[in-house]
Amino acid sequence: MKIDPNSPADLSAQIANAIRDAIVDGTLIVDERLPSESELADHFEVSRPTVREALKRLAAQSLIRTQRGASGGAFVNRLSYTDAYSQQVTTSTLLLSMNAVSFETACEARYAMERACAPLSARRRSADHLATMRTEIHRQSQPGLTDEAFCASDVAFHRALVDGAGNPVLSYQLAGAVEAMQPLMNMITFTARSREAIVALHTTIAEAIETRDEDASIAALSALETETLGLARRVFAARSAGTPAASHPDDGESHAPEPRFKPRKTTSI
Amino acid sequence: MKIDPNSPADLSAQIANAIRDAIVDGTLIVDERLPSESELADHFEVSRPTVREALKRLAAQSLIRTQRGASGGAFVNRLSYTDAYSQQVTTSTLLLSMNAVSFETACEARYAMERACAPLSARRRSADHLATMRTEIHRQSQPGLTDEAFCASDVAFHRALVDGAGNPVLSYQLAGAVEAMQPLMNMITFTARSREAIVALHTTIAEAIETRDEDASIAALSALETETLGLARRVFAARSAGTPAASHPDDGESHAPEPRFKPRKTTSI
DNA sequence: CACTTTTCATTTGTCTGACATTTAAAAGTC
DNA sequence: GACTTTTAAATGTCAGACAAATGAAAAGTG
Q1: pTM recorded for the entire structure
Q2: Which of A24, A71, A175, A269 has a CA-to-CA distance to A144 between 20 and 30 Å?
Q3: Which nucleotide comes closest to B66 if you measure CA to C1'?
């Protein structure tokens, strides 16, 4: 592991890259302890604060974890599905919110990927997955539900559908597509009628998954995509036409001219 | 933006979370300049090194960029597709390499997602995408190609297929699935016969995309999945049976008992 | 000897203060 | 006015120090 002190790049970035590469290529293996900060500082011939900045960069990506105390130090972290999942969601959420990705584009990507899961889910779903889907459908039928709670339940329903495929890699990949859509969905107001349509389609999907009907599950997802897209178009058209009749009461503090993007609660760095 | 000095968590982590949340929820907007490190240190009532550690955490996630000099500072970064893409690839690669994900699982996830793209690509692909696919097929037919070059070309082919769908969100999501598989694919030795089969299937896919035959593109991808899976199984079975006949010459320095995982070259943190 | 308590060395977390380097803007010069 | 020089502000880096956590060894105790 070497760095170039004459490079224009920050020393801490170079050190972080060097250590990360060592992790990625297997020189440093999971749960192995890195040298102490002082030793790293000596090795790279930099000061300890510089080493620390490098370690914080790695910690931000869940590549290492640190522990204080006698036999403490920095350890190579096994990237769990949970860690990867939350990073994926954060990245996807930011990507969508910062790049003015159209609802159409995000929606299309999401449903294309869900359709990829559906047949697998139909084949493999457990009773648990099915029960979760039914529970969420029931929740979505409750009259007093807020729009945000409705969206949250929607995400839970789709997560169960995806998890039903029994492929953790697929679940992890889909996490971004499904959860990152939630802020966009939160911008939509769901009328009683539109909720009814969505619940009906969710029911169709659940039935297809229950009867292991792969084609029906795909068809129902396509129908749901069409429904969602149409709903979003109507809502946005109504707003841009200056009739924010059914819109949320604005908090007045937003500096964005567009309907506000409502982020999910975020997890720890 | 507040932090709790009595929390057990690191101050730098708390500060990073506070700033990240401000970015995610829109309090800090793209290209906005953060207060200087000294001002942030005053605001949070911590020292400048602590603030710097927090900023490095954010920089590692491409949430901010820093600039030196007079009117320099830390700026909220617009997360580009390129940034998101490379983070996605790194995370996926590590997830696969550190969690002993079976080839079957990764392969299934990848092809399921690609099948989701194929119909869209058949509908929308430009002549450019098709040309890239044809070029890569031709490259893959060259006899002198190393296994790694063959894999790289394979990735390029599939990228063109995915990009053909014309949905940047989909391309970004698929990046992880396709590229993170490359190290796994690199563990496989491709015999002339297996390359032939793969090239033939690639040709079938390209033809389906060219003639805008959605169903044929999906069928060809499924066939490719079967072929890849069978190939991998044969290779791994042969190795575990103690006949590493067609395996790579081992470098002897690997401490892993399994066939070594060959990572892609990584980009900057 | 077995067990508990204390001490202690190690390591990360944080602070202070300083200097180096970069960079854009202001000031000066022709 | 165009060019050069100076300057100030900001990040990047350094050195040394102390605080806090923590496990292990040492000391004490029955």
Answers
A1: 0.85
A2: A175
A3: D11
